Amino acid sequence: MCPFSSPAQNTSASNHSARAAFEAFIGEAEFPCVGARSALNRGRLRFAHFHALGDPSVAGPLRDALAEFSEEFPNPGAQPVSFIATFDATVSSERAFESQLWRQLQLLHDADRLLSQWNASVSSNPADAEFSMSVAGRAFFVVGMHPAASRLARRSPAPTLVFNFHDQFVSMKESGKYGSMQKAIRGRDIALQGSINPVLARFGEASEARQYSGRAVEGDWVCPFSNRESANV
């Protein structure tokens, strides 16, 4: 368990309960994401549990936790590794979760920009195909999961943000491992739900911001996130 501690985080008992529930969820035989299962089996998941998703008090502790995670894995290699942030907040719908997710990421950025610059290898414009979330100078691909998700693969026991290193995805794509992993995930997703998740694009071919919440966003959807550095506010 991660050693992070702050008023925004829950008790150790709550942490343990949330972690156990999430690990049981991704450990189910039908769970499609082979990368997450690999990280779990190899002890390469890091975990922290917080209070309400979208609460301003969470931003600082979450930022610090991700900074420590980045320091632990400066070169994550080819084996998947993820940081799992779970939350107490209740979720009534996919749109409600989407709103909470982007509020939390905006608050996270607002806290982070006081300490770090945006990672220069990715865009800070969420409409750009090169966009990726930056925290503590490191780029992350974020996967949102919650109990009200329409896709079974994202229907986690609690609202969850999974942070994956962007540079690891780039390395896997260059090595050819990304394509084979994506094929395996899609096959398992079809077996689980009868279809491929329509929100998933190939990495680097469309803005990943459209994928974060898991909702099938409209074609004219505009991401509610903005880079405060460029706006100077």
What are the key terms here?
single chain; 233 residues; 39% helix
Give an overview in words.
- This protein has 233 residues and is of the alpha+beta class.
- It has 7 helices and 5 strands; from the N terminus they run H-H-E-H-E-H-E-E-E-H-H-H.
- A 5-stranded mixed β-sheet has the order 1-2-5-4-3, sandwiched between helices.
- Helix 3 packs across helix 4 (94-112).
- Residues 1-7 have low confidence and may be disordered.
How is this fold's topology laid out?
Layout: H1 12-27, H2 34-41, E1 45-50, H3 56-72, E2 82-87, H4 94-112, E3 133-135, E4 138-145, E5 160-165, H5 166-175, H6 177-193, H7 228-231
Parallel strand pairs: 1-2
Antiparallel strand pairs: 2-5, 3-4, 4-5
Brief sketch in words of this structure:
Helix content is 39%, strand content 12%. With 233 residues, it is an alpha+beta fold.
Strand content: 5-15%
Q: What's the pLDDT, averaged over the residues? A: 87
User: Which structural class should the secondary elements be placed in?
Assistant: alpha+beta
The main pleated sheet reads as: 5 strands, mixed
Q: What is the tally of beta strands?
A: 5
Count of helices? 7
One letter per element, helices H and strands E, the order comes to HHEHEHEEEHHH
| Rg, alpha carbons | 16 Å
User: Could you give the distance between the termini?
Assistant: 36 Å
Give the overall shape: globular
Give the low-pLDDT segments: 1-7
Helix content: 25-40%
Strand order of the largest sheet: 1-2-5-4-3
